[in-house]
Design brief:
Distance between the termini: 47 Å
Low-confidence stretches: none
Order of helices and strands: EHHEHEHEHEEEEEH
Strand order of the largest sheet: 2-1-3-4-9-8-7-5-6
CATH architecture of one domain: 3-Layer(aba) Sandwich
Shape: globular
CATH class of one domain: Alpha Beta
Number of helices: 6
CATH superfamily of one domain: Class I glutamine amidotransferase (GATase) domain
Bound molecules: zinc ion
Helix content: 10-25%
CATH topology of one domain: Rossmann fold
Oligomer: single chain
Strand content: 25-35%
Radius of gyration: 18 Å
């Protein structure tokens, strides 16, 4: 069975004149959908901020195994009730991949419980993403590192809880380093944060970056989903005394 992926995008930058629109004329979500579709392993839908309920209705979420999230300048416009629904879905098993500036999204901050602040600089730094967990399924088919000619610098300190697995450390020309690929478990859900993907660079056309997102979507695909979160009161002990 194909993995059901919903690619959610804020889709504001690419609707204004400028570099993001030149690079992603149909939006970042469509560029991500295209390479996921090309594998034949996913059933991919998209949703955007300005759709009713941000395109994340109960029906859409019920039919999502893995949600991918790109956002930057309108985090506060995402309705709290939608964030609440997505949060519950993750705890019940839905996978979540948060990309780039999604680190400041309401959903990521809620799942992390910290500010998720980081250092940043837009100065055409080149970046080298070093693999720090070579046996991890997310880096299957990736060499020792991924080289990006241009990317926005994201630097430590990145205010997140210690990841359950760290698969990339990014190094930037300016000297900063960053935990660029972080895995977290929350409830039954798996979360992957992946740093590359500034809107003025063609990062999502890079084959290695595409491979990581494809691998991450497979890794985050739930092995078990539950219908509701329960805390059973077990009155009878397993062992009789
Ligand atoms: Zn950015």
């Amino acid at each position: 069975m194909k993995i059901k992926v919903t690619v959610w995008n804020e889709f504001r930058h690419e609707r204004e004149e400028g570099k993001p629109k030149e690079i992603y004329p149909e939006g970042i979500h469509m560029a991500i959908k295209a390479f996921l579709d090309s594998t034949g392993e996913f059933e991919v839908k998209t949703a955007t901020l300005d759709e009713p309920e941000h395109g994340l209705t109960d029906e859409v979420l019920d039919n999502t195994d893995v949600l991918i999230w790109w956002a930057h300048k309108a985090h506060n416009e995402v309705q709290d009730d939608v964030v609440e629904k997505v949060h519950k879905k993750v705890l019940k098993g839905m996978g979540l991949i948060v990309l780039h500036s999604g680190h400041h999204s309401k959903i990521f901050k809620k799942l992390m419980g910290t500010s998720c602040n980081l250092k940043w600089r837009e100065a055409n730094d080149n970046e080298r993403l070093w693999v720090t967990d070579p046996a991890h399924p997310i880096v299957e088919g990736i060499g020792e590192y991924i080289e990006l000619e241009n990317e926005e610098m994201y630097g430590e300190f990145f205010d997140i809880p210690a990841p359950d697995a760290l698969v990339f450390i990014g190094w930037f020309k300016g000297g900063e380093v960053f935990r660029s690929g972080c895995c977290f478990n929350r409830g039954y859900g798996r979360i992957f944060y992946f740093q590359p993907g500034h809107e003025t660079y063609p990062t999502y056309y890079n084959k290695d970056i595409q491979k990581v997102i494809i691998n991450a979507a497979k890794w985050a695909n739930p092995t078990k989903k539950i219908d509701r979160l329960i805390a059973p009161n077990i009155k009878e002990p397993l062992e009789k005394t």
